[in-house]
Amino acid sequence: MSDQATGYAILHDARRNKGSSFSAEERRTLGLEGLLPPGIGTLETQVARIHAELATLDDDLQKYLLLSDLQSRNETLFYAVLMSDPATFMPLVYTPTVGEACQKFDHVFRAARGIYLPISARGRLKELLSHWPEPDVRFIVVTDGERILGLGDLGVGGMGIPIGKLSLYTACAGVPPQHCLPITLDVGTNNHDLLEDPLYLGLRQPRVRGAEYMAFIDEFVQAVESLFPQCCLQWEDFANINAVPILARYRDRICTYNDDIQGTAAVALAGIFGALRISGGKLTDQRFLFLGGGSAATGIAELISLSMAQEGLPIEQARARIALYDVNGLMTTARTDLADFQKPFAIDHAPVASFAEAVNALRPTGIIGVSTVPKLFNQEVIEAMAAINPRPIIFPYSNPTSRSECTAEEAYRWSEGRAIFASGSPFPPVHLNDKTFVPGQGNNVYIFPAMGMAVFATGSKRVTEEMFIVAAKGVAEQVGQADLDQGLIYPSQSRIFTASLHVAEKIATYIYDQDLARTKRPDDIGAHLRELAYKPVYR
Predict the structure, then answer these.
(1) How far apart are CA 391 and CA 278, in angstroms?
(2) Distance of CA 251 to the CA centre of its chain
(3) Among 79, 94, 213, 446, the one annotated catalytic
(4) Distance between CA atoms of 167 and 163, rounded to whole angstroms?
(5) C-alpha–C-alpha distance, residues 61 and 54, integer Å
(6) How far apart are CA 523 and CA 92, in angstroms?
(7) Does the annotation mark 64 as catalytic?
(8) Taking the model in full, what pTM does it have?
(9) 262-445 maps to which CATH number?
């Protein structure tokens, strides 16, 4: 192969490409002369150019696609852009914009990224997985596309979620991108519109269920263990019927976790810790009512219960301070339709006619929405919470924004400015009665990148529930009084990298203390993490 061909290949290798920043000497030695404009720029000028290009676009999906194309051609520049202004770019590469990108995946598909494992390749998953060029994969985010955000079954279009999540592992906590692999398991789709769409890129068949599905998952896990023995598996956006049993099946066997269940739980718990710094209450005195009874709800409820137990409340008494309300009403012991994972939170109570009536009957200090149904925290509900509590905790965590149970403006206005608010998707500041409230976003981005960096640095053998409590406390303790005075209960996303490394240090310390690490404990864990963290600079 000629030098020029080698040079041309470098320009199409996202990890090696520097674009206009190749020096004159590099251009000569790598055979790049003539393949680039003669002007030589810096990484800083390249970042400025991308900022300027993005500023000309009004549509967030177009911005998402521009950044996606950039990631495919120049990985260093992509992360330099993200890390230059994380608060601006996180909503573009992940929620809420990624939801629309997943919905339109088949119509805007560009360069392939990650691995697709169709169930039609049963018996050959290790072979397909071995096609990935990086031998040392430490993190896999995997989805089967059935429950993408609050948008439902998007089939292979769900790949946008693992790609986006892993981008934030790097941008927010410094996990080196070469160790990250997004995967979609294609077991079919029950989305009729996708099956009828001539542009759909996945298998055109109904979803496989039952034993055949679990055998496919088993083969996948075995292939990952065989090829990437130090890999941590993060399950993402699986339907409840699969998410809960998959986590139960593997959590004590391999290094794995489900971010929808455990990451969501940790960020909610962090929000509660922050809220209690405003209200002055004790965790063990709180009562919570959930709107939604799926795996996210029960995951949050269980982590709250475990945290209450750490503070001295017997676990059964802790669980009794939590109630769930779903499409069939209050989850009571009299109901016969509850799944096993819901039963610990069933209460002995008469049925109620509405969520607002449940608020009045149970008198919770906080309500948490994980229903994916918008506007169910209506005026009657918020006013009921405000009548019961001086500082009601209102957490509509469903996302994207179109699925939020209420807006920040509604929560503050209907509570006369007394709500302690956080949501799953971003909302702008709210001006009410000469005061400005800054609504917090209970985004899992405060948890999973830090968890990833801690696991990467320590080579942890497992991810445990206690690690998520440690993470939640690490997030909450970084919120200053000035933030709390504005109603903000999470650290500013503008300093997410520093915040994530702080949380990662707390988790890593716990991993070493519990003898879960595969690596030797460094003298200074924080310094070790900072040294390992990926930095977007040309080498």
Answers:
(1) 8
(2) 18
(3) 94
(4) 6
(5) 11
(6) 38
(7) no
(8) 0.93
(9) 3.40.50.720
Distance separating alpha carbons of residues 106 and 201, to the nearest angstrom:
6
**pLDDT value of position 149:** 86
Strands 256-258 and 322-326: unpaired
> What is the chain's Cα-based Rg?
24
Terminal Cα-to-Cα distance of the chain (whole angstroms): 24
State mean pLDDT over 320-340. 96
Q: Closest Cα partner for 97 from 143, 123, 125, 59? A: 59
- Please say whether the dihedral angle defined by the alpha carbons of residues 67, 71, 74 and 77, taken in this order, is positive or negative: positive
Side-by-side strand order, sheet with 256-258 = 115-118, 180-186, 139-143, 232-235, 256-258
Question: Stretch 418-431: mean pLDDT, rounded?
Answer: 93
Q: What's the rounded mean pLDDT across residues 97-107?
A: 95
Active site residue 165: yes
One of 3.30.160.20, 3.40.47.40, 1.10.10.10, 1.20.1370.30 is the CATH number of 3-80, namely 1.20.1370.30
Contacts of 152 (CB under 8 A, 6+ apart): 146, 191
H/E element, 49: helix 43-55
- The CATH topology of domain 97-254 is Rossmann fold (3.40.50)
- Which tops the pLDDT comparison, 424 or 140? 140
Catalytic option among 18, 63, 165, 506: 165
